[in-house]
Structures are given as C-alpha cells and as structure tokens.
Fold:
Amino acid sequence: MKAVYLESVGVLGPGLPDWETARRVLDGELPHRAEVPRPDPPQLPPNERRRVPQLVRWALAVAHEALAGAERAAGEVAMVFSSSSGDGEIVHKLCEAVTSPEREVSPTMFHNSVHNAAPGYWSISTGSQQRSVALCGYDASFAVGLLEAVGFVLAEQVPVLLVACDLPFPEPLTPLRDIRLPFGVALLISPAPGNRAFARWRISLGAGVQPARFPRMLPPALATNPAAQALPLLAASRASTAQRVSIVYVGDRHMTVETSPCR
Amino acid sequence: MDLDGVALDTWIGRVGGVEEEQILARLAEFDCRNNRLAQLGLRQDGFDAAVALARAHYGPERIAVLVGTSTSGMENCERAYRQRDRESGALPGWFKERYSLNLFSVADFVQRYLELSGPAAAISTACSSSAKVFASAARMIDAGYADAAVVGGVDSLCLTTLYGFESLDLLSRRPCRPCDAARDGISIGEAAGFALLERPGRAQGGVALLGYGESSDAFHMSSPDPSGDGAYAAMQFALQRAGIAPSEVQYINMHGTGTPANDRIEDRAIFRLFGASVPCSSTKGWTGHTLGAAGIVEAIICALCLEARLIPGTLNLDRIDPAFASRVAAAPETRDLRYALSNSFGFGGSNCSLLLGRAA
Structure:
C-alpha cells in the first residue's frame, strides 16, 4: 500500500485545547488538566452563528486548527467528516418535537440534523466548494473515516482534511451510548511529503482485534469517545522511530498504521 | 397519507411488505423499519446470491460495504420516545442505539447479512448519500483496499423527515410534479437499493460506472445555490473523469424533486452544460423522493434504461415550466443509449453526479 503524509493536526478535548498542548501532554511535558473547552461558532453572519449546533462547533474548531497548521487554504482540501452518533441534542429535540401533541419541528433544527452539517457549515463559512463526505462506523468511526480519507488521498491525489468528532448524549439518551467525554480531531493528510509533513503512514486492514494502548496520561473515560481512537496514533506519530499502531475497525477486524517520522 | 397517526396533508411512497418482513434470526437485534427495508432490498432480483458468488471469488474481506442513509433507524427512536416512562422520562429497555438509531446500523446489518468483512461505512450526506457511495466505492477499489463493493441506499419513512420537510414548507399536497409549471414540493418515499461494483473482467452486468463528480454549494444548509454552480461543477467533474463530452450524453436523470427552487436551478445548470439537446427527466413522480436512497434508486433506473434503450418520461407533468431551457422529456422515448448521467443534491449543499455507460 502506498504511503500518505500527515501534515498537521487539530485537537479539542478535555484538557486538550489545541494540538500544541495535546502534543506536550502526550510527550509528558505537561500534566493533563480536565477542563472542557467551549469552542466558538465559525465565522458566519450573526443570525447564522447562533444556530450552529455544538457538534459543528467542535468539528470546525479542529478543522480550522489543522488547516492553519498546514498553511493551506480551505479550497485546496476535500473533507471527510466522521462521527459515530452525531449531535445527540438535536436527535433528542427532534424526537421530543415529533412525539409532542403539536408536532412542531424547527426548520433550522431539521436542517442541522443532517450528518453532513459540519462539512456543510465548513463550506458555507469558508466559501470552499470542495468535495466532502460524512460517514459513520459506530465505535470504529475514527478508523472508518481514516480509511475513507486515505482512499481519497491515494485514489484522487488530493490533500484531505479528516475530521472526527463525538459528544456525549444528553438525557434521556445518555444510558444508550457510552461516550463519557467530548472529543474532536482533525488530520490533514496529503499524497506527497511536502515541507510540513511530519509522519508517513501506510495503512492496512487485518484480521482480529488488537486495540492500541490508550495514552496513560489521559483519562480512561476519554477512551470511550470513538474520535479519541486517534490519540494512540497521534502519540505514535510523534515518535522518533517507526511504530505500528492498531486501531479497532469494524466487525472483528483492525486497522494497522505503520508510522515513521519524516523530518 | 397512511402512516401510523400522521396527520399531514401530503402523499407518501410507502413500500409494501416492510411490516411483515422478518429479520433473519441471527440478526434479530437489528430489527427496525429501516433494516427490514434493507433486507427486503437485499432479497430482490437474486442480489444476495450474486454477492455470495462474488464472496467466493474475492474472499469476504475484499468486498466493501458502503450504504447511504439519512435517518437509519430514527423511526425506532421516535417509537421509543412515545414510550418514555411518565415519571423518570427514561426510554424503554428494548431500544438500542447501536442497532437502529446509529447510522452505521444499516451498513453493519448489510455487511453481516451478506457475510462480508471488508471495509464498511454508512455514508450520510442527506439526499446525495447513496450517490456518494459509488464515489467512495470507486476510491476504495482504486486505492487497493477492496476488489469489489456492495453499494446501497436505504431510507425509511419516519416522523422526523415528514414533519421536518413540512416545517420547511417543502411537502406537496399532491403527488409531486417535477418540472411542472405548477410544481409545489416533494412527496416523500422510502426505498432500499443495492448494486455490486467490480473491476472490469469478472463483472457480469452490461453497465459500468464511468465517472462521478462531487462538489459543495457553500451557500446554505437547506436551500440550493441559485447560481447552480455546485450542480454544474458536479456534472462537469463526472464528465471529465469519464472522459466524455457533454454532447455524448444521451439521458440525464435529474435530481428533480418537484420543489420550485431545485428544479429551476437544476434546469439552468443542465442547460449551461448540455444545451437544449440532451433529454432529461425526473423519475420521482413514480418513487417519491426517497432521500438517502434516491441516489442509488436513480442510478439503477439509469442502468435499466441504458439496457432497455429507454428514456423515461416525467410522471405527473402536465405543463413543462415555460421558464425551463433544457429539454425535459415529458413522455418516454425509445432510442439507442450509450451514456446516462444521474444527479443527486442534498442538504448542506452536497452534490454528486454519476456517469453510467453501457458496454458497446
């Protein structure tokens, strides 16, 4: 399998307000603190900004960080967005609305409920008419998104911004989905080793499940978030030697990422 | 309108036999309207048997499963909300997110039903979902992660989409009338559709996916860009990838939902790229708008039309909108067809066009 290159990263999670901090926490330079960030809505006209759902705010915050880190323009990169469970707040409000006697659904809530809301708002707020796709692979949503992104990069030879994001469900949905902490990550993956690339990845699927060890300096509750399955890979991609990382894939399969430093 | 307790003045396209469909015993936990519809689809036309042969040839781990859906088992979640505990507000114990509400549920179900173990994903980009699965499958095969792919689209009727489109004032009070001067909205339908994509060689079918084109409107979450630039770009990318000139295309299956804005903008984009010589029509008068399943339903219609050498007409069309410039086929026409294009546009400004061709 041909290699792809990791150019930049965006991260948002409890105690992980950006990639610079996350990098230092993963390297053991900084202790982990547990504050949950509150991302700002994207650059949109004021009446639009108020309507931007939480999951989209998280997704766009990490997407912007990765884009800036790669010194690229939004119009250059396709987007692959992956989330296991979408925006639980919206699911809850829609279900309450359609099962109430009035059955009145907010039109904004309805259009915000699409799984591709994040790529939609991304293109509207940046003006990018680039292609995007939105997908889901339940607990394996990060690996499913990564495979789609790598397939995209290899088949079409374009840089791809992979954004993976999941938030805890609100009541009464909370007991149905064990996602205890919010997390979002964005990876700018490119077909060629440009100046910014810091890791080279070769990705394959294999039999059996061999989950990678979750970084021990991070709270185990974060490991319940499907998007946080990126963290063992990011930790390994920081290493000065070649590493193999296993990520849980769909069914009884796993994804192997062979990562090696490229600067 | 004949759906449990729904009091909307609109028409729906409801698939018969979904309620009676029994989910395979080994997959019983996946039971919900959407997966019943998926199973009903998998059992049609010898599809599951054709996949079994491909599985024996390539191996189960070399066949991808990519299924488009916009709401998956949302209907099951709505049902659970109607049974919330009056005191605590808790949802009933039978409701499981993983096997119904979660978008991956339908892809998971299809993969297990067909006993496959390759790459899998649920693709959810609103009404372009099951057109996008073709693009994803082509990339997955190109990149070497699969030798073949089962692509599909499954969306079932639920309150959220019915009342959601009602809130946007997009539901017609009559069966939808795409391209008609008096068109006034969509009729929601439900559907499951599947196709097996393989590299040339072993593939049995006489129809090939020659190109796909994707773009984003970058305009609005639920209104199409009046300039039609996104729709135009998606069609143009599909032609470019296939290496086919606009004049070689002999039929365009429009997204053609029957809303005033969609059909007007799509007409202009088609005219800009193809002029007034290529016949185009919308088949949603027969199927309704099947949302996340619309892309594959219409790709399959295009494939059938290529084989039958038929340009379908546009059902419920009384008077073509006089403002339209492209050549709308009101009635069916018989002619030799080699290339056909199918359009799908979704909320979030997600556009996808597929170019299909018949072997000479």
Chain A has a mean pLDDT of 95. Chain A touches chain B through 65 residues (CB under 8 Å). Chain A has one domain: 4-261. Residues 54-69 of chain A form the longest helix (16 residues).
